[in-house]
Every structure is written in structure tokens, then in C-alpha cells.
Amino acid sequence: SAGERESLRTEIVLASYAEDLSWVSAYVGKENIDVTVYEKGQDFPFLPGVKTLPLPNVGRESHTFLHHIVHNYDKLADWTVFSQATPPSWGYQIGSSTNGHLPDKVSFDDYVQPFPHGRDSMFVLNA
Q1: pTM for the predicted model, two decimal places
Q2: Which of 51, 90, 92, 114 could serve as a FRET partner for 106 with CA atoms 20 to 30 Å apart?
């Protein structure tokens, strides 16, 4: 039910390499939402209310996500959103550092909502 979903803990897990993380502030302090950033770059950002952890710059974002799962397996959030740390936006352009990877009619907030329509996962397919 909607009431049960509101009491679930959501964690946003971001794989970062020196991206602009200012967009993350929209989720900091929201009830039942935690934000964890794994920083693989040289500069270690300080973001109030965000758990920021260094990680060696090996692998890609999948390495970061697997690291989080393995090291937090017994304490994973009820709903976890894994994403690159680039600010979410529409579209994908080859060679652009501003790719947000969001398809039409989907926002990042759609991913953050636990168990949409009663489903246990959310995966958006696009061509």
C-alpha cells in the first residue's frame, strides 16, 4: 500500500568520478532517503547529509554497484537506486559528459519511488 511504501528506506547509490553533484541536494534530508556517493576521482567532495566514500578508480559503474552490494549485503535498503553521478537528464549523446541516460516520460524521481505499481523492480527499456 502507499502508506507501507512511504515507510520503506530508499538509498540512492552513485558512482562518481568528479561529476557535478549539486543535483543530489534535492534528495538530501527527504524522509527515508539516504544518498551514498562512491568517489573514484582525485577530488573528494564534501556534501552535507551525503555519505561519501572513496573507491579506487578501477572498473566502471558496475564495479561500484557490485562493491556496494557485497559490502552492505546484510543492511541494504528496502529500495536501492543505482546510478552514474552525472545529473539525470534526457537522452544520450556519444562522447558527451552530460548524458543523463533518461528515456522519454521517465524522471529520476520515478526510480526513487519504492515498488512502483506494486512491482519489485523498475527497469526501463529503450532502443
Answers
A1: 0.85
A2: 51
Q: How many CA atoms lie within 13 A of 98 on its CB side?
A: 2
10-16, strands of its sheet edge to edge: 51-54, 33-39, 10-16, 79-84
Q: Are 124 and 103 in contact (CB under 8 A)?
A: yes
| DSSP code per residue over 65-112 | HHHHHHHTGGG--SEEEEEESSPP-B---TT-TT---B-TT--HHHHH
Please name which of 47, 88, 44, 82 lies closest in space to residue 62, comparing C-alpha atoms: 82
Q: Hey, what's the cell of 77?
A: 535498503
What distance in Å separates the CA atoms of residue 51 and residue 58, rounded to the nearest whole number?
20
Question: What are 89-110's pLDDT values in tens digits?
Answer: 776 666 666 666 777 778 888 8
Read off the amino acid at residue 92.
Y
